[in-house]
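Quick one - inputs below.
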Amino acid sequence: NAGVTQTPKFQVLKTGQSMTLQCAQDMNHNSMYWYRQDPGMGLRLIYYSASEGTTDKGEVPNGYNVSRLNKREFSLRLESAAPSQTSVYFCASRKSPGLSGNTIYFGEGSWLTVV
Amino acid sequence: GNSVTQMEGPVTLSEEAFLTINCTYTATGYPSLFWYVQYPGEGLQLLLKATKADDKGSNKGFEATYRKETTSFHLEKGSVQVSDSAVYFCALSADAMKTSYDKVIFGPGTSLSVIP
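Output:
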């Protein structure tokens, strides 16, 4: 059982380049999330998708776009990378919106460096 | 709005010492509470959870009790091991009965190092 799979695991970008982080889950979950993790800042929500076909902004959406391609896949795109976007990115999913007891499952993370 | 506050550490303990990591929250209604653990180079894993007041979550020797009167969910372990070295995150999920807002809020994380 793969759970939440995200790619790539490591990436170095030059300022101004674009890239897409891919995420897929095989647990038939409705809700999916993208977080970034920075030293001293904990986890901050970038975007989330409560169900297929819907997306909403989290705490730090500027500079990012997302696509909920289907129920399994939720991608995060950096259109013009900036050094401030150097971070570790985590994709996550859980069964349904509004059922607050459900566990969130995380991918293993993507380490992104923008130079 | 909802928020989670936890001691940031780093916390350094000797093996077999008692561990407490404090977590308090602010929320309307009846949120669910979680502790997640992140080992070096890995994603976050659920450690334990509690979905209503006075519930006690437990796993791998760790425990936390949902205290609504003090809005707290402190993590404890009686005897830590070197393998417990990790970052621990307290988290809150909004009350499903009060809102359809689908968001989980994490504390800043507490780094724990256990030395032999």
